[in-house]
Amino acid sequence: MKESYEKGTAVFYASIGNALFFIWVYLTYVFEIDWVIAGVFHELLMIPMIIAAPVLLITSIWMLLQKPFQWTVVVSLVLTAFVTVAITYLFYRDFSS
After folding, report:
1. What is the pTM of this model?
2. Roughly what angle, to the nearest 10 degrees, separates helices 36-66 and 71-96?
3. ∠10-46-27 over CA atoms, to 5°?
4. Is 97 helix (H, G, I), strand (E, B) or coil?
5. Mean predicted confidence (pLDDT) in 36-52
6. Number of helical (H) and strand (E) elements in the chain, helices listed first
7. CA angle 10, 77, 60 (to 5 degrees)
8. Euclidean distance between CA atoms 75 and 72, whole angstroms
9. Which residues contact 90 (CB under 8 A, 6 or more apart)?
10. Which residues, at least 6 apart from 41, have a Cβ–Cβ distance to it below 8 Å?
11. CB < 8 Å & 24+ apart, contacts of 83-88
12. Rounded CA gap, 65 and 78, in Å?
């Protein structure tokens, strides 16, 4: 039981970190923050975070199907679903034009 709870908590924190990264990217773009260190972090973390979003979504769905309701898994499912849909929409919008 404790091992399942720890996995749910790890997915929860990873989902929060992933969502906060994309919020940070959005804010630096909107407010035109062009610090060198911000650009370095964007370049280093963008591809791993884009890959992590659907992986966290699949992991959250799998964990929710394995065990009944856990609030950490449900919150991570909602966060990663939102981030994955936003990333998919932005890719679609960029490649369709």
Report:
1. 0.86
2. 130
3. 95
4. coil
5. 92
6. 3, 0
7. 55
8. 5
9. none
10. none
11. 83/15, 83/18, 83/19, 83/22, 83/53, 84/53, 84/54, 84/57, 86/22, 87/22, 87/50, 87/53
12. 15
